[in-house]
Amino acid sequence: xxxxxxxxxxxxxxxxxxxxxxxxxxxxRDLVAKWEQGRRRPDHGTIVRIAEALSxxxxxxxxxxxxxxxxxxxxxxxxSGIPTERLSALISRFLRERPRTEADVFIxxxxxxxxxxxxxxxxxxxxxxxxxxxxxxxxxLGKFLxxxxxxxxx
Length: 154
Known about the structure:
70% of the residues lie in helices and 0% in strands. By secondary structure, it is an all-alpha fold. The protein folds into two domains: 3-62, 434 Repressor (Amino-terminal Domain) (Orthogonal Bundle); 66-153, Arc Repressor Mutant, subunit A (Orthogonal Bundle), CATH 1.10.10. The longest helix has 27 residues, at 127-153.
């Protein structure tokens, strides 16, 4: 079941309208509708706020593992067919080659499944810096994996 359907189901179970949920979250009703239709996807922090507003656990909307996997999936070249064990080895090699803080932030987010806020707090940096670092690292990882796939096909 998609995230939007889970949000809609939880909202309906709570006896709340889209407008009421929007007001609790200080967002527009249109944004709530887009989440429920799958046209927009809330980030993990917003999912936590949605869950609190609906008195459900965030995991009933999306698990941390599922959310982290969705973020990382964009790094994996399409139709690469990389076996899981090989992918794990490539990511480990990639991280060993990264600066320590960059690798540690990545590990805390995607292996330990900590939120951006938790990672930022641990390192004493802003969430925006963590998001930026993760975004840049994910792009580098995508490029690295693409190159590795091309090299292995030769």
